[in-house]
Please model this.
Amino acid sequence: MPEPSFALQLSQRKYLAPDDDRMDVVLTVRVGDAVAPAAGPPPTAELLLVDCSSSMDWPPTKIEAARHACRAAIGSLRDGVLFGVVECTEHARLVYPAEPPLAVAGERTRHDAKAAASGLIAGGGTAMSTWLDLARDLFERTPAAIRHAVLLTDGKNETDRAGALEAALDRCRGQFACDARGIGDDWEPRDLQRIASVLRGSADAVLEDAELAGDFRHLVERAMGRTVPDVRLRLTTLPYSRLRFVKQVFPTEVELTPQCHVEGHAIELPTGAWGEEQREYHLCLDVETAQLTRYEDRLLGTATLFAGASEAVTGQLAIVGYLTDDLALSSVPDDDVARVTGQAELGRAVRAGWDAFERDDRAEAAREWGTAVRLATELGNAEILKRLGRLIDVREDGTVAIKDGVRPRDGFSLVLGSTISTYTGAGEPAAVAPPAAGAPRECVRCGHKARPTAKRCGHCGEPFETGAPS
Model:
């Protein structure tokens, strides 16, 4: 049986102008041959967290779709997986098994669990912090190395105490992964996005109730396909560099900086469990360019991949800076960095458009979504274009018109989909941001030329006048 293979690739443009203060890098991680070992797959635990608040009863198709989705997910569990079904209202209650520990999947337990799921009844409030806290408690009682939950809700987190959800997320961080789904038209996408971001999962809207069962089954099967439980990125910085942020940017955007463990110049980032897959990370370092010597490579940091024990599974990659006065070198961005920066701008335009739509400013929404169409087209992000297409029509002149009868769930789907990114792959064209527009700035003190966005001369240090360069 082959051992998992690991690959770590670094993409950057090393050239820095004297007035630069950051270095952006894209790290691509690939895991291959992640099949179950001969001894069997690692212990896996799965929880289904099902909103059973009173709003799930209308229309009644919602609660029935939830029951059906639970039965489908339970039916896809392989023998030996630890699992449970949780009824979620203002409290959380384990309905199968009747009490801890979690059940072991087999023919009898799957049958009994489906019967329990069929008996779920809507009634009560919505307090998501209690759902997550019970999940954490149940997972802590298992020996499972891979722990995953699917959370379904149809309402706003209105029964919870103020700040309770954030506190629960802090307690659950790093304990398990969670994919979140919203059904119907009266829930808060920001709550689901926050849950998915902290718990390294995905968040999305259920567009049609009949699609929920297939989605549940897919999420559970993907979680069971993860056979490498512990993959970590280890980063180092130098006295003249420090971490500004690190984000996962493919397949979805997730802010990871709060999850880093920092000790001096050593930074360790747990990335959770993996199957055969690829992810990308955007790493940004603050750099004190005054500490660098011109026209020579200087080490700014390193990146290494670890899995399981403390031995590295890839070589150490160097993050390099090269200080130069040559505008032609320092003003051209790295292709991969430009792509992830463009994706971030796409997400901003999508969310700004929805915010404008919610406050009934349709003109502003159309402008922002027009920008989103342009960016998604440049990036080749077909998924975002598809989701935008449910809300807008694109005219021949490139402007957009908002459709009549937009359903809230279509907007929620777009907002949550704004974190879905693209990967072009080696050799394929990627969107590249153009160099800064305008003529180079010329220093009044020494005559040295700098790029249009420079704030001070890189040769003598003289500040440029504020405002646009001439």
